[in-house]
Each structure stands twice: as C-alpha cells, then as structure tokens.
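Archive entry. Fields below.
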Amino acid sequence: MKLFKNFGKIEIAIALAISAATAGVIFYKIQVLDYTIAAVRPEDGYFVRLTMNVRGNGRPLSVRVTLPLQSERQSIKSERESSGGRFTYTISPGRIGQWRAPDFSGDQNITYSFFAQTQARTYTLPEGVPIPDSYSDDIVKHLLDEERIQSKAPEIVAKALELAPAGTDLSTTLKNIYNYCYTQVKFLEVRGTTDAITALKLGEASCNGKNRLMVALLRARGIPARMANGLILESNRKRTTHAWTIAYVNEEWVPFCPTNGHFAEIPEQYLELAKGDVAVFTHSPNIGFDWRFVIQRQLSNEEEVVYSNISNPLNILHAWTTLKDYHISLQLIMIVLMVPIGATVVALCRNVIGLLPFGTFMPALIAVSFRDTGLVVGAAFFLAVILIATAVNVALMRLRLLHIPRLVIIISVVVMSITLLALAAMRYGITEAAGVSLFPMAILSLTSERFSQVLLQEDWKAAGKRMIATFVVAGLCYGVYNIKPLQTALIAFPELLFVNISINLILGSWTGMRLTEYLRFRDLATIDDGN
Amino acid sequence: MSGPSAFGGVVGMNRRNRDFVLRCNRRPAIAMAKDKIASKAAMAAEGIPTPRLIATLHAAAALDRVYPALVREESGFVVKPCHGAQGRGIQIFLRALPEGTLLPFHGDPITSREFQFSLASIISGEYSSGVPEETVLFEERIRLSTAWVYRDLPGPPDMRVIVYEGRAVMAMLRVPTVASGGRANLHQGGVGAGIDLAAGVITHAVWKGRRATHHPDTGEELTGRPVQHLQECVVLAERCRRAVPLGYMGVDLMLDAQAGPVVIEVNSHPGLAIQLANGHGLRPALAQVAAE
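PREDICTED_STRUCTURE:
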C-alpha cells in the first residue's frame, strides 16, 4: 500500500477507467469488427503510386502498363487501381495492366499503387569458363538480332571481337564489354530512344542506348542477354524509368547496370517492371497521355493496417486518408501520433529522473527532426549548429541588441549553418546530411537562445549539463519513435493515445522524489532513511 | 517509505508542485505574486513595509521624465523588471548624476544612453518569459543595516521565509560571496544559512550544495550566530499572506538601517534549497501546520 501513497487515488481511478475503456474498444475491434492484427509486423519497403493522366476524344481508348514483376528478389503487395469507374481494368498473364474504354472523351487520372519490397543481389561469375556453344530453345531467342539491338551488324561484331577476341572466357568477356559500356560510352541524360549502333557511333547515349549496346555486344559474342526496364526506388517524384542489362551466365540471369556501375549485382532500389526491350507505357494513338511515379519509403504494415481494415467502421485513420484524398501520407500521421508519446518520455525524464532539458517539449520535437538524418548525424549537426549560433548570440548580447531582432539574426545564422554544414557533409559522403534541410529552424534557434542565456546567467558547466540532458532526452524520444511495433500499434489503434493520457494522469499525481533529488539532498537523508 | 520523515523529510519538486503550490496557490494570487507592482500595492495596503517605489516605466524613451527623480535618490536605486524571476534583470545603482552618468553597484559608470538601452531590453521581455510588454520598476536602494552584515560582504544578505497557511515553517539567510558576484542566490554561489526559528540562531549552513560552517570569503563562523530582528521578520512574512493570498509562499526580506525589516518580494514557487541550508527537510514542519 505504501507504494501507492505518492500517487493520487482519484487520478489512478480515472486512468484505469480510461485504459479499460480503451482496451475494450481495441478488443471490440479485434473480436467483433474483425480487425486484422496479423499485419502488425513491420517491414521496410517502398510505397509506389503511378498517376497517369489521359485525355480522350470520343474514340476507343486503351492504356497498357507493364506492372512490376514478382520475383525472388522483388515482392509486390497491396496493388490498388482506380480510374474513377470510367475504364475497365484487366491484368494479362504477362503482368500487363490494361485500362480500356469503348469511347472516352475528357480528362481522367488513372492511379495504380503498390507496395514493393526489393532486395539487393550480388552474383559470382565462374572464372575461366568458356562461352557455351549452344543453349536451349527458350534461351536462344536472347541471341537474336533485333531492330534496335543490332547484334549481327558488322560494326557491333567488330567492336565485340575487339573487346573480347575469340577464345576469351565468359567472365572476362562480360567484364570487358561491361567496362567498355560503363566507362567508354558517355551517359547522356536525355529522353528518347537510342539504338545500339547509334550509341556505338556516338560514343554517348541515354540509359536505354547504353544497355541496347551492351546487350548487342554480348549477343554478338554469343552470350544471351536482354534488357530490363524498371524504376529506381527512392523517396521522390519520378518521370523517368531506368534500363539495365541481364545476361544469361551459367544458367542464371545476372544483372548489370552500365549506367550506375553495377557489375553482376543489382541494388535494392531497382524494381523491374518489364522484361526485354519493352516500353513501360503504351497507349492508343492520338490521345493526351502523361504519367508520374510518386515513391515513398515506409513500413508496409502502416498501409496494411489501415487498408486491411478498410471496410471496418471506427477506422478513423482511413476516414482521414480518404477525406484528404490521400495526399497526407500515413508516415506523417504516424509522426503526429508519436509526438505525444515523445512528450511522455520527456515528462518521465523530468518528473521521475529529474533531468532538465531546454524547453518544455523541445527534446520530443528535436527527436522528430532526427528522423530524416538518423541519431548520430542529427545530433552532430544539432550540436554544431547550436555552437555556431551560440557563439554569434553571445557576441550579439555584448552589442546589446534587443531581444526579437537578435533572435531573427540567430535564425538566419542557424539556417545558413544548416545549409553549409549539410553541403559540406554531403561532399564528404555523409548522405544522411540531406535530411538536415527539414531540421526545425525555430527549435534550433530557441535551443541556442536558451543555451546562451544559461551560459551567461550561470556558467558553461550549467549550460553544458542542460545541453547534455537535452540530447539524452531527445535520444530517448528518438529510440521510442523508432520502436516499430509501437508505430504500427498506434496506426492500427490510435485510441492508444488514451493510454498515453492515463499514464500522464498517474505521472501527474505522483509526488515522489526525482532520482536527481536523492543525489542533491543526500546529506539530509541520515535520519529515518528506509523507514 | 513515504511518511513525512522519509529521506530526511525532504520535499521534492513533484511534491512541492502538487501538494503545496497547486493545492494552496490560486491562479490570481500567483499572478499577483509574479507582478511586483501589484504585490507591492497589496502589501502597502496591509501596512507591510516594502522598498519605496520611485517610478515605473513602460517605454525606454520616457527615461528623461524619470531621470530627475533618480538623481534625487541619494542612497541609490534598484531597477527591476516587473515580472522578473530569480533576480534576473535586476540592477543596483549607487547614484544617478545630474549630467547623465550612472554609477552601478557593480562595474564601471555608464551613460544614460547605455542605461536607456538596458531598460529597453527589460521592456522587450528579455528577462521575463511570457510577458510581451514589460514594465520597469525603480525602487529605493535599501540602506544596509549592519545587523545581518558580516565583515566585508560583497553584497547585501537577505532572508527567505517559507510561509505555509500563514505560518512561517522554515527560514534561511542568504549571504553573498565573492564567488556569487555579490548576489545572494544559492545556485549562483551564495551561502545559505539555515535558521532555527524557535531559538533564533543559525544552526547549519551550505555553500555550493555542501555543508559549510564558515563564510568562504571572510572565514567568519556562521553556525551558532543569532539572527537579529528575526521575530519581526517572521511576523512580517506571515502577514504577507493577507496581502498576497498564497497558501504556500516564499517571502524575501532585507534589513534597512532605518526602517528595519522590509519585504522585497513574495514568491509563489519557492525553491527547495532552503532544506539544504537547514540540514533537514520541510515535510515534518509542513505536516505539523497541516495537522493543526
């Protein structure tokens, strides 16, 4: 009983009632409304949304898209399609999606979205093995001369023999041809089609031209090869696809990218949409057609959790995402839902441990900004920016500038330091530094201001202590934000925030000593301690 | 574990806030305590002596209007932000000379232009968080009595009394040191000397969070020393509750050579360090008042 003496009884009762009600709602959702929680196992991947805009003029209209392929290194989930009910949608066995309308006029957006999980692969090539003389029938077609892959053309054959004379083994041939296409054929960032001969003659080509040349050279030396067409997955908007080469080596299809320099390997971000030299998009002539991909890195189950429970009532987040026409990402909603949890971490640190970070909830917000940079890079940047801003601030305080204009100068210094530091870091290959652009300027400026104030009113020791406390608490918040089961549980059951409220009802009624106070008042504890 | 005498009877921050500040101090009373002009007026109405108010200022440009009054203050004056906390923004001046030079208690003389600048930064809220338009107070400077003063102190000592439900429960003298830059605040390096309210003597003292028996600068013995005017101070501190109706408050007093004890300000969230100065926690004394 003594344990509860430092807590408020009424508060505990209310907290328990709220928690019980929340548990009841969750139980009801699972048992009665059949919410699936099987999906609450987080996995990384990319959410890809293709938006195509078509304009028809009253004639039959058809749009064909090569859809992402299922393979051992890429898995496609949660495919969804919407065309406002104005098109018939079918998927052919070769994974070609087709939208058709017998007569269509006007303007319509067709969207197709999916969740892709891909893996990087590296292949080992057999050393010293000769190029095989013959292949099975289904492989032989990958040796043929094509309209834009002219593998029998004399200049291609001559170049191929120059790179790999007769008798050269399989892996050396691959290496020489790849190196030539990677280093000797200059990459041009142009849209449009380049064939193999043009690429060879000009010594420069777009991505598809480089790969047509590589496929042609391989075929000329008797190595079956084909193009792959796809998408590079990175959180971005994209209006370009990417091509690479796949060669048949030792009864295995091995990828090569002479554009970005991947030899016998494929990075995680490569998503294959089409096998062979095939256009990703084909459509009826004389229509208006435009397309773009929007790609976001995220956890699969956030989508899953919301959509798998799509028909259920009480799915507040689904209501929200549809209401907003799905322009707000679940990632953003998740961050918003997480901030109160971070605030609880701050409250525990302050009221139970006795740490005194700057600001009330500053660490919880600082931790949000670490999301794009990672903890180490984020913290290093944070510290660097604050030290720069503080140096300027202390100098400005000597000038006796008035408060608000001085803060504006600090914000300007903060923004300039962020930009320059991020640029410098990216030059040294710290790619996480790119995320620094989203660093909250105001939070950094205010932290620097508080730091400067403590520095001047007390001393560097006191200011340093509070700075360390700020970082420790922000680090804890960051850790909590990254607990994936917690993320998905919150997305599935946002009502868990009521439990967060309950925790703070209890915490707010607790009058026990903070851990640091045991240290501060240790000399007074001689009488009656432990009774 | 949690009886009033657990861990030396120390009151922690959580308990102070919930069981005393939040329970006993109503919002309007807290607002009054944080507003030095309002609390001063309320204390004047109760006949509680406070340093005389010379003038108030809402705009630095109006300094010219106030300046002649400052010049007339022969024993100097004190500048305070109306809503300042923890002594922030307070400046003490020995004189304001008619031609426009001011002599601060600490540091070199400044021009009235520089003075105007520092007033502007007080008014812009530099030292008062959450107050957009601050007011500056000019108060008479306390003529230091020798009764509390130890030899060669770098600044004036003051007394803090914790008053719970109108009853003084704990008190300490805050004695400045060279390390505290003449300020009396304990976290700035002042010595805290706990006073036995019944016996009227200093029983225990701390400096920089650790027990001290002598003043670090003068070497003078602190413990066992009687505190003069203690009863008057306690009576004044307890009366403050009628002026500023806080159930749990810290009253700061100074000793004027002519007027005797005066109340400098009241605090709605008094700090916990007084327990260190006294060498024991507040809880037994608070529990005794609550039981009565």
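CURATOR_NOTE: The CA atoms of residues 363 and 471 of chain A lie 7 Å apart.
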